[in-house]
Design goal:
Blueprint lengths: L6 H4 L9 H8 L3 H17 L8 E5 L8 E5 L3 E4 L4 E3 H13 L4 H24 L6 H17 L3 H8 L5 H33 L6 H22 L19
Antiparallel strand pairs: 1-2, 3-4
Helix pairs in contact: 3-4, 3-7, 4-5, 5-8, 5-9, 6-8
């Protein structure tokens, strides 16, 4: 039996991690949601323009022992947390995902903000707990997805998403960026799930465990997001800790 790649996960939302993605995945079994998502991705890519460097500065998007730096504008930042920045591009990705699933613009925005607050907060916790993924691991993981995309039972839907990008290579390069963050989160969540099973004595795989873990995971996500204390009210002066020297 051929496996099915969840289109939601392929475009950066992992249904295993976040229950909100499951509703989209269910709808995506009909092609309409996938078609809408592909059309929105393509429109956004075609409508994007290169930014001028004026007003941009180097920041660490997350405060860790090994922070990565990137050039970014104050206008690119949507939310500032204690240890991580959430960009407007991330929120746009989320809105596009939920809009394709049938949500209104208001609903899509609210869900996207909630999703990325929780997701990025979990990423902070994952790195602090020692979970990471190096370039080779990320490359290998994405290569496995690439191989599956050719043989999966829903390969037609997967290819619709890929075809929205300028080239297939552009899509897989984007996936490497996505999974550079997602793999540490997946590892961290897997460790939490394992610990929860051991603590409660409920075997994983049972309906009882699924229900109990879902409730516990919602608590963990909410707690992590609250801990980051995200705000959309900030100035460049508030980003002092994130500023990095250009090299």
């Amino acid at each position: 039996m051929k496996k099915i790649i969840c289109v939601a996960a392929v475009v950066c939302f992992c249904a295993i991690l976040f229950a909100g993605a499951k509703a989209f995945a269910d709808k995506a079994n009909g092609s309409s949601s996938v078609d809408r998502l592909a059309e929105m991705i393509k429109a956004e890519i075609n409508g994007s323009t290169d930014r001028e460097n004026a007003g941009e500065f180097f920041v660490t998007t997350i405060l860790t022992d090994k922070p990565g730096t990137e050039r970014i504008s104050l206008d690119d930042i949507a939310l500032v947390g204690r240890s991580i920045l959430i960009t407007k591009d991330e929120i746009s990705d989320g809105e596009r995902f939920y809009l394709a699933g049938g949500d209104t613009q208001k609903e899509a925005h609210e869900k996207a903000v909630k999703y990325y607050k929780e997701y990025d907060a979990l990423y902070v916790r994952a790195l602090k707990a020692g979970f990471d993924a190096d370039d080779e691991e990320v490359k290998s993981y994405v290569e496995s997805l690439k191989s599956m995309s050719k043989t999966t039972a829903n390969s037609e839907d997967v290819m619709k998403i890929i075809s929205a990008y300028p080239s297939e290579d552009d899509y897989w390069k984007y996936m490497q960026k996505v999974y550079r963050k997602q793999l540490p989160v997946q590892k961290y969540v897997a460790s939490l799930e394992k610990s929860f099973s051991e603590k409660t004595g409920i075997g994983r795989g049972s309906m009882e465990f699924a229900e109990a873990w879902e409730k516990e995971f919602e608590r963990i996500k909410a707690e992590a997001a609250k801990e980051e204390n995200f705000t959309d009210k900030f100035t460049k002066a508030d980003l002092t800790g994130f500023l990095a020297a250009e090299t």
